[in-house]
């Protein structure tokens, strides 16, 4: 786990205020409780890099998934299952769901958009099971527009004059007699920032403070409210109309915070003012952390009206830092976010072997990754190459892996042009980012929860594999006590697994950390310790995380109806060709007659593949299983050299000649090819068995020392390749399907260096190439190659990624095809 850096510091107090002692029990307690909270509820963050921002029905969304530990942003390898779903924003319904396998915090996948999908606004979400313990706000969200290739683009209607303006005092409050800064944000009906001007006006119509937007509808002004006075804010909209707004609530007594994060390269300066009675014995506190890593904590008395805290930047991680001020009653009273800049980003370069290419010519790119000091970086990256004439840049400074993890994931609400604040060529980026953080605050926790003496256990656990759960009950609905369970899992490729387990006293059970792919059939068999199978079993269905939208249309991508004409035309051509190819394949398959030989029940049974021909076989039928209580009852007396003793659940079996100096040696038991305990065999009803194979001597030698006592191989009817056990209605048995890790398709890109019949088709793909798993070597280099399409266009290449310690890199470049 990441170890927080803790500093209990003395405050620097203006006007010569008294310095506090170093030791402070409450402050030590606050730091200890905060650290315990972070260790109990560690944060995870997920991010998806998409090949492009919009799609048509019938196309595929390609994505790369990154999961990091919230404090350090190091690649997270604890959770290994990431849920990615597509939500219809009109109905708030999940329409597609994928379970992505993560390895070292990295995975990838795709979503095929069905032709029947409705066009409109959708949202991609990514979250782990552990992240479900917290607000949905902490999931990764990204808006995606889905179009119909055979329909014209429609724009969402909105009123350009419908502007919402919000005013937010720095730190949280305006206080009588204390000067403070008030940030504001003006957005239109589509959530985009708009420019405004305005003023604070007194009750006598005097203008006390004027203001105007600085960037994307945001700005701030300074203002000191006086006791007994009333104020209003007047805003002039772009259309010239004036609108009145009430001033934010003014408190009679309290604290204000002014933060200077721009003028001093070594310290963040925090000025705290209050209008409470001067009291040298009363104390205020300040607590500073970056994503849960404590960087600074200090106290000062209320002996003076103004206190200055200098917070060393060296103690703070890169990204969003939270500053909280506690009053004399140890209650949080003011908060402010600041951004700490570190030169930890990965510098990426994309070099092509040519400046321009011909249609269908091979393109070779070299990616170079270095740190800020020029040292090579080994990292994992994803690359998308798109046709710039079809994939329009409708979202300038769009979300990237860097702007999400370092900014958007730690503030509340949508951020317009988030990557704008990471543009090194923008001299105003730091100042405008500081204004943004005055307008958007957020906490991943509640201070009341942090300060509790005990923390409640998290209801959702960390998933390191596919899991499912359920419950066993008696037919009278009473608790069954502990029940023995046998699980048979059959994957699509016919891979089989047998697991054993038992329920809790309540009948509940959980199976976790499975490595199963695609849709997997699960058979669960339950039997009590007394052999009772008159039980009902229920598997809990998987429920995606709940969806909650608070505003429509949620910053949609706006298109001019004519802008996407080329994309829609080419997409319709491509999909029409694909439909024709599918139809031809289906017709060809219908004409094929398959001739096959009759299968050999022994040689062609995969369960017998290990040992082939058995020494003896007992086939189970209605005659020899009638009245039998266990498999041993059927075997007894039917196989030469096999001796069975005991009764009931205490049966012993010995194959003649199987002994050592310690006495008799029991055989190895196999259930449909899987080694199991004898207890598991005893509980299987004879009516469920197809046959039992006995392996003696040399036939059992293939199992080594395990087969020293011979082998008893039970072949169940359900385990047979021809048995449809999914329709079995036996007592104490249930058959269900679960979704394992979603299978990963490889992105198809034609290779024009070899002529094949399919190459006669026109090629105007919107996404020319998608490579989600690019690994740079020790020299920080990686190479990729693909072929240009038929389009004479500019091709935009975008690379995103990170290394294992949390340094991130983003780079875009273009080349021409003519």
From TrEMBL:
Q: Which Gene3D superfamilies match?
A: 2.60.40.1930, TonB-dependent receptor, plug domain
**PROSITE patterns per the UniProt record, alphabetical:** TONB_DEPENDENT_REC_3 (PS52016)
In its UniProt record, a GO molecular function of this protein is: siderophore uptake transmembrane transporter activity
Example GO CC term: the record gives:
cell outer membrane
Q: Which residues form a coiled coil?
A: none
Domain TonB-dependent receptor plug stretches: 616-711
Name the source's superkingdom.
Bacteria
The way this protein sits in the membrane is described as: Multi-pass membrane protein
Q: What is its main location?
A: membrane
Pfam families registered for this protein in UniProt: Plug
> Any idea where this protein resides?
Cell outer membrane
Q: Which GO terms describe its biological process?
A: siderophore transmembrane transport
List the InterPro entries hit by this protein, alphabetically: Plug_dom, Plug_dom_sf, TonB-dep_rcpt-like
Task: Supply the alphabetized keyword list.
Answer: Cell outer membrane, Membrane, Signal, Transmembrane, Transmembrane beta strand, Transport
Xref: PANTHER family: HEMOGLOBIN AND HEMOGLOBIN-HAPTOGLOBIN-BINDING PROTEIN 1-RELATED, TONB-DEPENDENT OUTER MEMBRANE RECEPTOR
Q: Spell out the family assignment given in the record's similarity comment.
A: Belongs to the TonB-dependent receptor family.
- The protein, known as: TonB-dependent receptor plug domain-containing protein
């Amino acid at each position: 786990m990441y170890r927080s850096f803790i500093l209990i510091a003395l405050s620097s107090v203006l006007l010569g205020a008294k310095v506090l002692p170093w030791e402070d029990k409450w402050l030590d307690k606050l730091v200890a409780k905060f650290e315990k909270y972070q260790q109990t509820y560690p944060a995870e963050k997920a991010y998806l890099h998409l090949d492009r921002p919009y799609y048509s029905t019938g196309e595929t969304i390609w994505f790369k998934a990154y999961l990091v530990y919230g404090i350090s942003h190091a690649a997270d390898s604890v959770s290994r299952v990431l849920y990615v779903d597509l939500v219809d924003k009109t109905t708030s319904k999940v329409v597609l769901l994928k379970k992505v396998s993560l390895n070292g915090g990295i995975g990838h996948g795709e979503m095929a958009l069905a032709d029947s999908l409705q066009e409109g606004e959708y949202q991609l979400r990514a979250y782990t099971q552990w992240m479900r313990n917290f607000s949905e706000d902490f999931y990764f969200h990204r808006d995606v527009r889905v179009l119909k290739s055979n329909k014209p683009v429609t724009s969402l209607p909105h009123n350009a004059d419908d502007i919402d303006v919000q005013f937010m005092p720095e730190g949280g409050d305006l206080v009588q007699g204390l000067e403070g800064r008030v940030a504001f944000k003006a957005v239109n009906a589509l959530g985009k920032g708009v420019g405004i001007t305005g003023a604070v006006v007194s009750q006598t119509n005097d203008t006390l403070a004027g203001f105007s937007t600085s960037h994307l509808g945001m700005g701030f002004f300074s203002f000191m409210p006086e006791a007994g006075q009333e104020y209003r804010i007047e805003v002039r909209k772009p259309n010239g109309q004036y609108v009145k707004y009430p001033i934010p609530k003014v408190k009679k007594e309290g604290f204000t915070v002014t933060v200077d994060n721009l003028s001093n390269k070594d310290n963040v300066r925090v000025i705290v003012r209050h209008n409470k009675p001067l009291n040298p014995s009363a104390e205020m506190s300040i607590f500073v952390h970056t994503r849960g890593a404590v960087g600074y904590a200090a106290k000062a008395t209320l002996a003076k009206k103004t206190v200055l805290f200098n917070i060393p930047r060296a103690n703070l991680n890169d990204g969003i830092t939270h500053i909280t001020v506690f009053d004399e009653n140890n209650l949080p009273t003011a908060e402010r976010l600041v951004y700490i800049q570190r030169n930890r980003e990965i510098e990426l370069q994309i070099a092509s072997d040519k400046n321009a290419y011909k249609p269908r010519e091979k393109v070779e790119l070299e990616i170079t990754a270095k740190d800020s000091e020029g040292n090579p970086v080994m990292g994992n990256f994803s690359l998308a190459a798109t046709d710039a004439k079809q994939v329009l840049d409708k979202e300038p400074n769009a979300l990237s892996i860097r702007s999400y993890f370092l900014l958007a994931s730690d503030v509340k609400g949508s951020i317009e042009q988030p990557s704008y604040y990471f543009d090194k060529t923008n001299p105003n980026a730091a100042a405008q980012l500081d204004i943004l953080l005055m307008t958007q605050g957020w906490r991943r926790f509640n201070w009341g929860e942090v300060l509790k003496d005990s923390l409640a256990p998290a209801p959702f656990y960390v998933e390191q594999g596919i899991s499912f759960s359920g419950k066993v009950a008696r037919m009278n609905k009473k608790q069954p006590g502990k029940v023995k369970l046998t699980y048979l899992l059959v994957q699509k490729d016919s891979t089989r697994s047998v697991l054993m387990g038992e329920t809790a006293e309540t009948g509940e059970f959980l199976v976790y950390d499975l490595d199963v792919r695609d849709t997997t059939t699960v058979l669960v068999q339950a039997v009590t310790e007394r052999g009772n199978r008159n039980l009902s079993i229920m598997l809990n269905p998987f429920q995606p995380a709940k969806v909650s939208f608070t505003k429509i249309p949620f910053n949609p991508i706006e298109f001019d109806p004519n802008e996407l004409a080329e994309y829609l035309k080419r997409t319709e051509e491509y999909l029409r060709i694909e439909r024709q190819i599918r139809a031809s394949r289906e017709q060809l398959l219908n004409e094929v007659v398959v001739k096959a030989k009759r299968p050999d029940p022994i040689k062609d049974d995969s369960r017998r593949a290990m040992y082939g021909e058995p020494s003896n076989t007992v086939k189970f039928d209605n005659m020899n299983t009638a009245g039998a209580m266990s498999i041993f009852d059927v075997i007894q007396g039917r196989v030469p050299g096999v001796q069975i003793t005991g009764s009931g659940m205490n049966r012993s079996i010995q194959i003649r000649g199987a002994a050592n100096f310690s006495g008799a040696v029991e055989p190895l038991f196999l259930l449909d090819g899987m080694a199991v305990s004898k207890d598991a065999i005893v509980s299987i009803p004879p009516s469920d068995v197809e046959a039992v194979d006995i392996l003696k001597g040399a036939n059992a030698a293939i199992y080594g020392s395990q087969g020293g006592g011979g082998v008893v191989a039970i072949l169940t009817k359900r385990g047979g390749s021809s048995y449809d056990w999914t329709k079995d209605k036996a007592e104490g048995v249930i058959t269900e399907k679960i979704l394992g890790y979603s299978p990963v398709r490889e992105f198809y890109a034609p290779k024009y260096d070899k002529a094949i019949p399919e190459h006669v088709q026109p090629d105007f793909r919107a996404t020319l190439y998608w490579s989600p798993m690019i690994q740079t070597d020790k020299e920080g280099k990686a190479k990729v190659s693909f072929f240009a399409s038929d389009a004479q266009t500019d091709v935009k290449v975008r690379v995103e990624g990170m290394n294992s310690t949390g340094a991130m890199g983003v780079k875009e470049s273009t080349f021409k095809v003519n």
